[in-house]
Request: fold
Amino acid sequence: MSNPAAPALESALTDRFHFGQILVRKINGAFVLSHCGDETRKKLKTFQSAEDAIELSKFDDSGNYRPLKTAPNLAHGWRLELARLEELQRALDYFYPGRLAVFLAWKTGQLHTTPLRETLDRQSGMYRVAAKISDDQIDNVVGDFCRSDGGCLRTILWKRDQRGTVSSAKLPLEKFDPACDQIKALGRPGSSAFAEATADKTTPAIATIPLLCQEPCNLLVAECRKVVKGKDKR
Amino acid sequence: MRSDSALLIVAHGSTVNPDSSAPTLAHAAEIRRRKVFADVECAFWKEEPSLRDAIFLFDPQSVREVYVAPNFISEGYFTQTVIPRELELNGRTTNRSNGQLWKYCEPVGNHSMMTELLLKRAGEVAQDADPAETSLLIVAHGTDLNENSAVAAKREAEKIRTLGKYAAVLNAYMEEPPLISDWQKLTRSPNVVVVPFFISDGLHSYEDIPRLLGIRSCHPKPLGSFTGSLDSARDDVESSQREVFRHNPYTAGGRSLFYAPSIGTDQGFADIIIEQAAKFDSEAYRDRGTKFIAKN
Reply:
């Protein structure tokens, strides 16, 4: 069985690292995964199969379905123990589908990005109308829908258009920097999620595999459509 | 399969139905377990990884060819327009800049093994019913958007009808005649088996069709109405949704009604996905030409 992302994972592997809201620790040769806010929490429910990640990533703490896996609403209360690197890779692929492969492509210089305007222009059917969105509206939609504190934890690599305009002037520069751990954004003033996301502010920063976004997702295209159709006032 | 061949299963997915991608992920896990391909991945229109992510899923060093199998009931807008466009396919075969050859297979529902699978599912759900005294209803959505799924459902019904095994084999739809809600008028046999011709279970198979059949009048309890733990509430909701498949046979108008889960949830789908990929390279299939690739 080929493991396309395994080399990248192996090279990025440290004794502990963040991948989105997941904390991965290497303990006695095995991998232990948990919500990054649960490191010191006791009474976690233990799972031992990579496939368990499918259900663990499906609902948030309130039981709501998570259509966007990179949204900052991963459920708490679980601990996933995996013996082998292949299992770790598969579990991380279930938690954040496709992100390891995109990370590998980026590390090896093979990732190409697609501007939002190009994505919108090639839509058909009910999404064709989304291309009519104005630049100001894009600024607002992307600034809101993609923001790390409440929207999505991916690091945006794509631009607004072919001219290289920043995707949204309303997002902080860290949102575009793969070196920044996006869960830190959960600590911005007004965010109640921060205390859970980063249990101890005194601990040094740990290694991070960024959740890279090479092209606007279908959910963002749907948001753009809503704005154009007047169903969203942004 | 060659040792450097991979499989990409493409499905629709959903932003609202948590069960939409479940069968596709399960089929992928089963095919992965069999080690038929060097790598097996999934991609979705409405979930992750996206079709655009899929371009990066296979290591060009170890994977030289990728079979793209659309986990759809029929050819249609998604298989003819959306998937080729998003995956940047330019025909039945596409040579990518990384040296990989991508092979675009027919939708899984098009495979001739579907007939066998429908028969198997109908037989399993109504084990004690004599087929000669049983009507089989294959339910499709039936709207303009899914025109081709209705065509596929008709084709399957016709194939099963010619076997002469069942008293009657009929198509029924949710939104156009013949309506599934008229099942008592449409059939005359003492037993009726209903199989939804969908890729996954969801609102249609859990609630809409049961309501139209008259076998379910209430919605499952919302999550907030449970007093136990969140885990048990989730289990209860899922169990409550699937409960509709566990009370066969239902009795109505003096007849026995057997209701099956969507055909796409059958484990046999994994075999069909593999066969659909294998079929791509067969000579007979090669002669079919490029009709199912339509430029947008």
Summary: Residues 116-228 of chain A form one domain. Chain A has two domains: 6-97, 116-228.
